[in-house]
Amino acid sequence: MDQYHEPVAELTPLDRDFVRALSSLKEEIEAINWYHQRVAAASDPQIKAIMAHNRDEEMEHAIMGLEWLRRTMPGWDAVMRTYLFTTGDITALEDAATAEGQTGEAPQSARPAGSGSLGIGSLKATR
Ligand SMILES: [Fe+2]
Ligand SMILES: [Fe+2]
């Protein structure tokens, strides 16, 4: 299958699941892009609304795949903790995390207000 860039026999079953998840994520992101362009260009309000609905569902599909990657594929969790649900200058977060000796956890200055050192504040806030 052309989704592989290395001999498939050299990939573990988990590696192959990573390929499936990453390919699926790419497809969901492409769908968001295409639907959004159609929403922007459509003139009929009903088809515009339908395609906006579809676009937003593709966001759900994409984020479900991302969450599986976060839980499963090394690396995602750390970078998500550095960059997601922050405010301010996104490009400054890497330097801030490095300066604070973080290993992927968002720097204190970038965390949502009220979050604790365990990083569970944002979970509490959404419930
Ligand atoms: Fe739907
Ligand atoms: Fe989808």
Brief characterization of the structure:
The protein is mainly alpha-helical. It is about 60% helix and about 0% strand.
Q: Keywords for this structure?
A:
127 residues, mainly alpha, 2 domains, 5 helices, 61% helix, binds fe (ii) ion
List the helices and strands and how they pair.
Elements lengths: L12 H29 L3 H28 L3 H8 L9 H7 L21 H6 L1
Helix pairs in contact: 1-2, 2-3
The protein binds fe (ii) ion (FE2) (2 copies).
The site of one fe (ii) ion (FE2) has 2 residues, from helix 2.
What would your notes on this structure say?
By secondary structure, the protein is mainly alpha-helical. The protein folds into 2 domains: 1-73; 75-111, no CATH class. Helix content is 61%, strand content 0%. It has 5 helices and no strands. The chain has helices at residues 13-41, 45-72, 76-83, 93-99, 121-126. Helix 1 (13-41) runs antiparallel to helix 2 and helix 2 crosses helix 3 (76-83). The longest helix is centred in the first third of the chain and has 29 residues, at 13-41. The model is unreliable at 105-127 (pLDDT under 50). One fe (ii) ion binds at residues 53, 57.
